[in-house]
Amino acid sequence: MTPKKLVKACNVIGIVSIVLLVYWVFAFILIQVFGLKVFREHITETFGLSIMGIIALMGGALMLNIMLNLTRIAERGQEAAVAGGRKAVWLFLAVFPLLAVLMFGGNYLTVRQKERLLVQSAEKLVRDYPKQVQALAAYRFDDAYLSGLAGRLKLLENQDSAFRDVTLIVPDRIDQTPVFMGFGSTFDFTPLAAVREKAGAENAEVAVAAENDALVYRLPDGKTAATVEKADHLFAADLSEREYLQNTFRTHSGEIRFESENGNYELFYPYRQNGKTVAVFRFSDYQRYGKLGS
C-alpha cells in the first residue's frame, strides 16, 4: 500500500470513528435527558462509558487534523476536488433525527410491553386469588381487618415478577373529609401484640376502640398503650392521580390508568363488586433497562 493510499485509508477510518462517536454521545444524551428505556442491561451499561467517547472524540479530532496535514503533504501540488461535499453534510445531519426516532420508538415499545404485562398480571391475580382480593376490598378501619392486611398483600405481591409492589387504595373519611387510604405489603400492624407485651400477659384483655378517626388500644387498667391514626396511612397522590381516583370511585368506573416515567411504571387497576368500584390496586415496578438488545 502506497503512502498516499494509507493516508486516505486513515482519513476514512478517522472520519467514520468520529461520526459514530458523535451519534453515540447524541443517543446517550437522549437517554439521560428523556429517561428512555431502549437497550438491555449490557448495552445500557456501555453507555456509562460514553465519557471515554468524548475523550476519544477529542483525540480523534486531533488525529484527523494531523492526517489532513499529512494528506496535504502527500498530495502537494494537486488540487483534489471533493465531490458530493454538501450531500455528505446533509446525510450526516439527517442521521440525528433518524436516531432520535429510533430511540423514542424503542422506548415506546418498551413502555407498551410493560403496560401489557402489568395489565395481564393484574387480571390474573384477581382471577386466581378471589378470596384474598375480596377480603382486601372489604375495607374497614379496625383491628381485625388491618391485622391481616400486610399478609394478603404480600401474598399477591410474590405471585408475579412483572411488578415489585402492590398497594391497596380505598376511600375513607377523616373528620368528614373524603380521603384515600393507601396500604402496602410493608404495612406493619402489630399494636395488639405490643399492648399485650406491655400488659405483661399474652392473653391479657385489651380494649380496642375507634375514637376520632383512630384506633385506641387500652390496657386493663385503662391506660392508653397504642394508637393507630388514619392520617398516618393516607395515599399520597398527585393532582392527576387524585382526580382519577375521585372519578373512579364516584362513577364506579373500571378505567385502568397506566403511568410511566424514567423507568418507573404504575398501573391503577379498579376492583369492582356488584357494579361498584370498591378498591383500586396499584401495581408498580422499576426497570433500569429496555427491551432491545443484541
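the 2nd protein, sequnce then structure:
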Amino acid sequence: MNADADLDLLGVLVARRDRLVEVAGVLRSYGFASIAAQLEGAGGPARRLAADIADRLIDPQLEEESAGQRLRGALTELGTTAIKLGQLLSLRPDVVGPQVAAELAALRSGVPADPPGHAEATVEEELGGAAGTLFASFEAAPLASGSVAQVHRATLQDGTAVVVKVLHREVRRRVLEDLELLAALAVWAEAVSPAAHRLRFAAVVADFDRSMRGAVDLRQELANLQRFGAMFAGDDGVRIPRAFPDRSSAGVLTMEEMTGTRLDGADGVRAAGWTPDDLASRTAGVYLTMVFRHGIYHTDPHPGNFLLNPGVITILDFGDVARITRTRREQLEDLIAAVGGGDPRATAASLLAITDAPPDLEVGAVEDDVESLITDHLSGGVDAIDLTAVSRGVAVVVHRHGLALPAEIALVLRVVTLLQGLAADIGADIDLAAVTRPFALDLARRRLDPKEALSRALRTGRSWEHLLETLPGEVTALLQQVRREGGADLRIKDPDGIADRLVDGVLTAALILSAGELVSRGTAPRLGPISVPGLAVAGAAYLRYRALRARRAGAPTAAARLRLAQRVIRSAGRPGQA
C-alpha cells in the first residue's frame, strides 16, 4: 500500500475504533486467527505459532467446533452486516472451501423486531404521511423480522391486501459504517495475506458492498419486483408479488400479499397439490430460465422464499438478485462445452481463462484433477452433462489450486447446487441432471449456431479494431514519456555481431515461450480451441526465424536496427522530424 492508502486505512480504523475493538474481541473468542490459518493453509512456523496462540484464547466451549462452525457463530454475534457477509461467502466455496461454505449456508438472518411504534414512525418519515392515513389498516405487530427489515400486514384504501417491508431503525447507518470498516480491513488483508491477495478479497468485499447498499435501499428491491414481474408475465405457473411504487421509498416497500402453502418437506408439498418430483423439476426449470435465458436471476432458492398453490409457484424476497453478463455466460458455455467434449486439457484451459491463476500454478496438476472429475462424474458426452456435478467439481478444483472464480460464475454454479439441495430437502426422487441437461445442451449447441458464431466473431472483430485504433496512440504516448524522462541512449559497438545474436536469441526465445503459454492457456479471443493471440505470437516467432536466416543474406544487423530505434525515440513528439 502507498502512503495515501495507509493514511486512509488508519483514518477509518481510528474513526471506527469502538466497532473494531468489538469485532476483534468476538473474533478472538472464536479463534479467528486459527480459522484464517486453516483457510489459508499451514503456512510457515510463525503462522502456525500464531494459530497455536489463538487456539489458547478460544472460549473453552467452542474448542471442539470446526472452523466453519466457529466462523458462523462469530458472524452471527457480530450482527446484520457480518451475517450477510457470511451468507455471501456461503456462495463462494472457491474462496472459503466447500466445508466452510456449507456451514455458512446455515446462517439465519432473523433478529428481534423493533419496539412498538418504530415501524409506524419510519413509514411517516419515509412516505410523508401517517400509516393510518396512507393505509386503510396497518398491523402494529410484525408478521416477520429479518436482519435488515421487518414486515407488517396492511390494507390499501381500495381493500387490496398488502405487506409493508420497513427497514429496522438505524440499520442503514450501522450497515454503511460496517461496510466502510470492512473495506479498509479487506485492503489490509490483501496487503498482509498472500491468500487474501490471490483470492481478491477486496473485490469480494466490493461486490458485497454493492449488494448490502441495495439491501438497505428498498428501491432496488422494488425495481427487481417490477423487472421479474414483467419477465414472467406470460407464465401462469410463476407468480411474483406486485409492487406499489406510490407507497414505497428507500426505507419502505409495499407489495401485494401473496397466499399459499409454505414449502416445508414432502408432506407440505403434497398438501399444496404438487408431487416433490414435479416441484423440483419446475423450480429448477424456472431458475435456469432466469440464468441462461435472461441473464438475471434470484440468488436465494431456499424453502422460505416460496409459496405453493396447485400448479403455481410464488417466489418471494427479491432483495438478492444477480446478473451474468454476456461475456461471462459465453465463458460458462465454453466450460460446459469442454466438459461435454470430455477433453481435460480444453476444460482446464476454459477454467483457467475465467480464473485468476497464481504465478506458480502447475497447469498439469489442474488438468489431472479435471481429468479425474470428467472420468468419475461427467463422462458420457454433452448429452449427459450434469450441471450440479460441474458446479461441485469446479468448486473443488479451484479451491485446491488457489484459483478464484469471478463472482458472476461462482454464484450461478452455487445456485445450481442449491437447487439440488432443495430437491433433496423435499424428498424429490429425480435426477436433476435431467432438468439441467436441456439447458446445458442448448448452450453447447448454440456454440455451433452460425448466427451465434457470426455474432461472436463480430464482437471479437470490434475488439481487435479498437485495439488497432488505439495502439498507435498508446505507443506514441509511451515514446513521449520515455523522451520526457530522459530518453534512451542506445549505442552499441558490435563489429563481431555478438550483441546482434544475443538480441535475436533472447527475442526469439521469449516469443516461443509466450506463444506456448498463450496457446496452453487458451487465451481469448479464440478460433475454436486455439488462442488467437497465441497464434499471432507464434507467427512472430516464425518471422524471427526467417529474419535469422535472412541475416546470412546481408539483412540489417541488430545494431543497425537499434540505432534506428534510437532515432525514433529521440524524434518522438517532434512533429516534422524523422
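The first strand starts at residue 137 and ends at 138. DSSP finds 26 helices and 13 strands in the chain.
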